[in-house]
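Hi all, posting the design record for the shared folder.

TITLE: backbone redesign
STEP: 1 of 1
STRUCTURE INPUT:
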């Protein structure tokens, strides 16, 4: 008679919940699983052996992650965050502050919030066009409207 024995890895689900999956780039259901080697006889696990660690599996894409992804902050994706990111991209690519501000106001944001978003995206250093007085982020060189070189605006 041949006795077949070996190791078999078994998984135990310790917890389930939602986490931010960096593969799916959104919030997904996960299982926190513990892997453990078992001594198996005839392919039947008999004796638990060493633990192989705990990991988090995304139930959508099947990727495994270290357990510490669960304590990572979830990137916020509220409409305001999106607007702020858009405004920042616009301003960084040379949109005048006045235009970015108007765009934000048009979305229905309150004036206070609009100013907060603008200040966060621009910082305190600004530049101004000598012709039409449009203002820009300090990293911008030329006016988008008339092409003139921008001048530094004293800090406010
Ligand atoms: Zn995923
Ligand atoms: Zn100009």
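Okay, here is what came back for every position:
SEQUENCE:
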């Amino acid at each position: 008679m041949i006795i077949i024995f070996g190791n078999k890895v078994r998984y135990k689900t310790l917890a389930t919940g939602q986490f931010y999956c960096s593969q799916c780039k959104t919030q997904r259901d996960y299982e926190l699983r513990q892997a453990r080697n078992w001594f198996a006889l005839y392919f039947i696990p008999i004796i638990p052996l060493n633990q192989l660690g705990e990991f988090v599996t995304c139930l959508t894409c099947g990727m495994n992650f270290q357990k510490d992804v669960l304590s990572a902050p979830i990137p916020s994706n509220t409409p305001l965050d999106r607007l702020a990111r858009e405004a920042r991209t616009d301003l960084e690519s040379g949109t005048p502050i006045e235009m970015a501000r108007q765009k934000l106001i048009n979305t229905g944001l309150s004036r206070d919030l609009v100013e907060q978003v603008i200040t966060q995206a621009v910082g305190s250093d600004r530049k101004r066009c000598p012709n039409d007085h449009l203002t820009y982020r300090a990293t911008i060189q030329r006016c988008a409207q008339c092409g003139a070189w921008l001048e530094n605006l004293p800090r406010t």
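COMMENT: Helices lie at 79-92, 97-106, 111-122.
Let me know if anyone wants the other runs.
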